[in-house]
Amino acid sequence: MINIITALVILILVGAAITYIVRAKKKGTKCIGCPAAGSCSGNHHREDARKCGCAHTQNK
Questions:
Q1: Has residue 26 got a pLDDT over 60?
Q2: Please, which domain of life does this record's source organism belong to (predicted)?
Q3: Which residue, 2, 14, 21, 22, has fewest beta-carbon neighbours within 10 Å?
Q4: Which phi and psi angles does 27 have, rounded to 5°?
């Protein structure tokens, strides 16, 4: 019984993550993990996938 509950919880979490990503992409968000995702161009990710080159991080 505990295995079924654990599997259901994992499936719900994965489904929620997929739903979040699909909705964000439909809105046109380029960088989903970026705090300024709505205004991020997404071009900086080709050079270095670990850094977000958005304006809010370059000023730090």
A1: yes
A2: Bacteria
A3: 2
A4: -75, -10
